[in-house]
Specification:
Elements: H1 44-55, H2 67-78, H3 82-90, H4 92-100, H5 103-139, H6 142-168, H7 174-202
Helix pairs in contact: 3-4, 6-7
Length: about 200
Amino acid sequence: MSWRIPFLGSQQQQTDPNFQDIPTQSWYPPPVVGSSSRPSTPTSSGASQHQSASDHPRPSSHGQPSPAEAAGIIGRLKDKSIEELQRLLKDKEAYNVFFNSLDQVKTQNNVRDELRKETLQLANRLTDLERQKDDIMRSYSPAALLDKLQTSMAKLDEESEELHGKFLEKDTDLPTFVQKYKKLRTAYHKQALLHLAGQTSLR
């Protein structure tokens, strides 16, 4: 934000050197050839356009305070002495302190800080999402899937060996052993075939 603060007394009235050369009736339109020499008066439509323009003031130019904001700044400056005003003009630090104390500046600084905070939060969130995406991609990569399949095969093989040991120690009857053992070995061999096919496709 780069406003120029309108200090009291800094805008002295200066007479335009060309002001005296402007005729008092210069706003009349030029006479039309063949018409009477009497100057024509402005039409009601021109007056209405002038009134409409005055009712809708143009917005302040970029980087300049609006009339309402300028009035607020001038109101702050009215209570200051000549010495204080001169110090604001000469002392950059004092000027910055006064400038940052304006309500308009405080509002814009707050908005800027909020936007910066939200931007940082979004950046952190984006980083987390990218990390999660990378983790998912790694966990479902062909090599990772083969490792998970290998782990599952080892677990099935261990369970089937434990069941076989229980049968030898007569801790389970034959029908139960056959049913469970067949189920475990069938799952094991299916996964073994998948693992072999996966290894072959990666070569």
